[in-house]
Amino acid sequence: MRISEVKYTNLKNDFGYWTVEVEDIGNYLPIRIKNKPDNYNPFIGWKIDDDVEKFIEDTVRKIAIPDDADISKVIPWGNYFDRTTFCFHKFHHVPHVDYPGWVGNLWLSEHPEGSRGTQFYNYNDDWKKDLFDFPRPEELLQEVETTWKQWDISKVESYGFEYMGTAPAKKNTITIYNSCVPHKAYIGNEIDKSWSQLVQLSKRRHFMSSDDVVGTTDLNNSVSTLKNE
């Protein structure tokens, strides 16, 4: 595997994302299933080869992370979406953030253009302070859908978010972005299955019990909930 081309897309004056073209990469299928969807991630987890995880980590470090950044954790996970088995609560339609830091998402499945990607939102500029002070709509945890129904941007914005743009999913590219920026999956009606591998590099900081970055208050100990895109 090697980096072919790097492109930066500016969505706002102070936020954008990188798209990294990857060459000499094999085909990877989500056959090493690790876990079922949990309370905060609607996707099935899977495990890719260690060398692919390391390549994503090294790419994120090279392209996005400042030399003086203090990285405390490297957290890999795979996301696998299967429309035929999907059944989950609607809370996942609300944007979330991962730990403060940077994430690289390597797309490994084919998608028609414009049908799959990652949507980015702003919430009171909290991400600029590595925070996400969002009052969770707990009622959505009780509302279950048996098929993926993508929310309109206007519905997401009704919760106080500002839409900034969407990074498209293209096979054999890595999308790199600030992981404390609110984001959520975009899955069009054309998509029946989709999979990717992510690696998040967390900045060192002291997490407070009030920091709602991954939907849990125990942020120092609960890393397993950091599995979304």
What would your notes on this structure say?
With 229 residues, the chain is mainly β. The chain has a single domain (2-203), classed as Jelly Rolls. It is 8% helix and 37% strand. An eight-stranded antiparallel beta sheet has the order 1-2-11-7-13-5-4-3, covered by helices on one side. A hairpin with an 8-residue loop joins strand 3 (33-35) and strand 4. The model is unreliable at 206-227 (pLDDT under 50).
Primary descriptors:
mainly beta, 37% strand, 3-stranded antiparallel sheet, 8-stranded antiparallel sheet, 229 residues, globular, 8% helix, Jelly Rolls
Q: What integer is the average pLDDT? A: 87
Q: Identify the CATH homologous superfamily.
A: Jelly Rolls
Q: Please tell me the total number of domains.
A: 1
Sheet with most strands: strand arrangement: 1-2-11-7-13-5-4-3
Using the coordinates above, name the CATH class: Mainly Beta
Number of continuous helical runs: 2
Query: How many strands, which pairing sense, and closed or not: the largest β-sheet?
Result: 8 strands, antiparallel
Number of strands: 13
Radius of gyration: 16 Å
Oligomerization: single chain
End-to-end CA span: 22 Å
CATH architecture: Sandwich
Structural class: mainly beta
Outline type: globular
- In percent, how much strand structure appears in the residues? 35-45%
Order of helices and strands: EEEEHEEEEEHEEEE
CATH topology: Jelly Rolls
Taking pLDDT < 50 over at least 5 consecutive residues as the criterion, the unreliable ranges are 206-227
- Give the helix proportion (percent range): under 10%
